[in-house]
TrEMBL record:
Keywords: Membrane, Transmembrane, Transmembrane helix. It holds the Pfam family YtxH. It comes from Candidatus Nitronereus thalassa. The chain crosses the membrane at residues 12-33. This is YtxH domain-containing protein.
C-alpha cells in the first residue's frame, strides 16, 4: 500500500516537473527566439496544442484510474461486509447450539 502511494507521489512530481519545464522552456523560447513574431506565435500555438493533448491524456488516464480504484474499493467493502455477516451468523449459531446443550439455570 505504501509503495502505491509512493508511486502516485512520484507521478505527481514528474508531472509537476514536466509542466514547470514546459513553462520555463516556453519563456526562454520567447525571450531568445531570433525569428519573426508570426513564426514564433505559430510555434507557440503548436506547442500549446500538443500540451493540451498531453494534459487531456493525463486527465483521461487519471479518471480511468480513479474509476478502477472506486470499483476495487466497492468490491472490497462488499466482501468485508459479507465476511462480517458470515461471522455474526456463525456466532449466533454457536450460541444457540451451546444453549441447547446446557441445562437451564434454576429459577427461585
Amino acid at each position: 500500500m505504501a509503495q502505491d502511494m509512493s508511486s502516485d507521489d512520484s507521478c505527481w512530481v514528474t508531472t509537476f516537473v514536466f509542466i514547470s519545464g514546459l513553462i520555463l522552456g516556453a519563456g526562454a523560447a520567447i525571450l531568445l527566439a531570433p525569428e519573426p513574431g508570426a513564426n514564433l506565435r505559430g510555434r507557440l500555438a503548436k506547442g500549446a496544442k500538443i500540451a493540451q493533448e498531453e494534459f487531456g491524456e493525463v486527465a483521461n488516464e487519471t479518471k480511468e484510474a480513479l474509476r478502477v480504484i472506486s470499483q476495487d474499493t466497492q468490491r472490497t467493502v462488499k466482501k468485508a461486509a459479507s465476511r462480517i455477516n458470515d461471522a455474526v451468523e456463525a456466532t449466533k449459531n454457536a450460541v444457540i447450539a451451546n444453549e441447547g446443550d446446557q441445562p437451564s439455570p434454576p429459577v427461585n
